[in-house]
From TrEMBL:
Keyword tags: Membrane, Transmembrane, Transmembrane helix
Protein name: Uncharacterized protein
Transmembrane segments: 12-30, 50-74, 86-104, 110-127, 147-166, 178-198, 205-222, 228-249
Organism listed in the record: Dawidia soli
Length: 279
């Protein structure tokens, strides 16, 4: 009975995601009386908003979430418990996403920001649950499931800061006492440090690369207006990419060295054992 109850949440995850993503797509093309998201950004523009193409990561997240939602319902996946463990936070996050869309497009910006924090917390819950399961040999074949949820966690980390800036702009905050450019630089450095911490803790590459993509998007948007902010964002993004590559190469070199050392030591042991048997 308990297994049946848990699988019910799996079946609810698919329509929840379909409804959430479908409403977002529908609003993008047919906003109706609501204010388009791009127009709100234009009204409350600040230096932490990246170039428009950066938001394409949302499409990647949406597509991969739909793949997950369908795949986890296949008969062969019926007894894989990771899908049961993340189903409820996925559903709750989908509901928050729909409420956020209404709140943001009707300019209830503080409420929208609080809803973003809620989505971020849920995404981190899913992220940590998946990482815990992936630490066991049994579930390493399901590493692909990290793509949608780790990308979502990284994007929500970035967007929570971005939408905080939109709300602060709406109430007239202009960076006092530091200045808007200093606040933007500090925000870039904070999200970069969070990405670096996740990479150090979990050896995850998706999270820091997503943040790097967002930082480079800030550079593309601000390079003509705020060159210092653009330079810091570009440097931070390139640093995250370089660190991921260097750590991956170093880890690969260590693995190859250990494998080579193991191969070399095996014949020597065989000869030694053969001699001892002959004696």
């Amino acid at each position: 009975m308990k297994d049946h109850y848990m699988r019910c949440w799996r079946w609810l995850a698919l329509p929840a995601l379909l409804l959430s993503i479908g409403l977002t797509v529908f609003h993008t093309f047919f906003p109706g009386e609501a204010i388009p998201v791009s127009a709100i950004f234009g009204r409350h523009e600040h230096l932490f908003i990246p170039a428009t193409y950066t938001f394409s990561v949302v499409a990647v997240i949406a597509a991969s979430l739909l793949v997950y939602a369908g795949y986890q319902l296949l008969p062969a996946q019926r007894y894989i418990p990771i899908y049961d463990k993340i189903a409820r936070p996925v559903i709750y996050s989908s509901v928050l996403s729909m409420v956020w869309l209404y709140a943001f497009t009707h300019e209830y910006l503080f409420i929208a920001w609080v809803l973003q924090i809620g989505q971020l917390i849920l995404s981190l819950v899913v992220f940590t649950r998946i990482r815990k399961e992936m630490s066991t040999t049994l579930y390493r074949q399901y590493k692909w499931i990290q793509l949608p949820f780790t990308t979502a966690a990284a994007w929500l980390t970035f967007s929570t800061v971005m939408y905080a800036g939109v709300w602060l702009k709406s109430i007239g905050y202009d960076g006092v006492p530091f200045g808007e450019n200093v606040v933007a630089i500090l925000a870039v450095l904070v999200v970069a440090m969070l990405a670096n911490a996740v990479h150090n803790r979990y050896r995850d590459v998706i999270f820091p690369l997503t943040i790097a993509w967002c930082c480079i998007g800030i550079y593309a948007e601000q390079r003509g207006a705020e060159k210092l902010v653009a330079l810091v964002a570009l440097s931070t993004g390139l640093y995250l990419v370089a660190r991921v590559v260097i750590v991956a190469v170093r880890q690969r070199v260590v693995e190859v060295t250990r494998a080579y050392a193991s191969v070399r030591s095996t014949p020597a042991r065989s000869v030694s054992d053969h001699r001892s048997q002959s004696a």
